[in-house]
Amino acid sequence: MAKSVKKKGSTKVSKVLTSPFSIYWSRINYLILALGIILSVLGYYFLSIKPWNSTSSLYLGPVILILVYLVFFPLSILFRKKESSPGQEPK
């Protein structure tokens, strides 16, 4: 008599795709990025103020944009909270 063969049930493994930024970015990174975007819009607004030789168009707008592009955007990408080492107790 032939042995009955049991078929193994196929198990479906669903893979959840997570954002690669969730590993590195926290809430503070998104807040710094949002602040940088708001400040860059403000800087471009100051550049567009008439007359072209006003103080805000010549000095304030470019300074804000330089600050945003050299400080806020890189800070939002590179900022990471310090994790406490296992030997230290939280304060």
Descriptive notes:
- The chain is mainly α and 91 residues long.
- It has a domain of 55 residues.
- The chain contains three helices and no strands.
- Helix 2 packs antiparallel against helix 3.
SSE arrangement, N to C: HHH
Unreliable stretches, pLDDT < 50, 5 or more residues? none
> Mind telling me the C-alpha Rg?
27 Å
Termini, distance in Å?
Answer: 73 Å
Task: Summarize the amount of helix as a percent range.
Answer: 40-55%
Q: State the major sheet.
A: none
Strand content: under 5%
Number of strands: 0
Structural class: mainly alpha
Query: How many distinct helices?
Result: 3
Average pLDDT works out at: 85
Q: Any idea what the shape is? A: elongated
Task: List the topology elements.
Elements: H1 21-24, H2 27-48, H3 55-78
Helix pairs in contact: 2-3
What's a concise summary of this model?
The protein is an all-alpha fold. The protein is built from 3 helices and no strands.
Which keywords apply here?
single chain; 91 residues; mainly alpha; 3 helices
